[in-house]
Design goal:
The chain is an all-alpha fold. The chain has 2 helices and no strands.
């Protein structure tokens, strides 16, 4: 009886040894499926977190804008700055470098030299390349 039990143990150990030496199964299809499902779930989770974060940011921005509006209303409205007063002809007259209400034209840009005729492409600074050097 002992010989039969020993023979069964040796046989089962031999079968397990041969089973472990076999070529491993190809799990690439299963792994690809698992990867695609994982990527889908990760993308969905990331998008939901972005949406939640954006909603929180918008809620905080709205609350801050509302509090600023309430604070401005308590002070009696907003003050208008004097630097953007418009004259009667619709031009801004008190900004630095303005021509104090004179009408604008194409010939008033910097670097123009020909004010009597129509503008050309070569009327700008650097438009005319220097002549090529003489050949020796």
């Amino acid at each position: 009886m002992k010989k039969i039990i020993v023979a069964l143990v040796v046989t089962s150990a031999t079968l397990l040894a041969f089973q472990s030496c076999m070529k491993p199964a190809d799990n690439s299809k299963t792994q690809a499926r698992i990867d695609s499902l994982t990527n889908l779930k990760t993308t969905a989770y990331r998008d939901s977190l972005k949406l939640i974060c954006m909603n929180d940011v918008m809620a905080q921005a709205t609350a801050r804008a509302d509090s600023m509006m309430k604070a401005a209303a308590k002070k009696g409205g907003s003050k208008k700055s004097s630097s953007t007063k418009k004259s009667n002809d619709g031009t801004v007259s008190d900004r630095p470098g303005s021509q104090q209400g004179q009408p604008k034209s194409v010939t008033d840009r910097q670097g123009t030299t020909n004010t009597s005729g129509p503008k050309t492409v070569k009327d700008r600074q650097g438009a005319n390349p220097p002549p090529p050097p003489p050949k020796q």
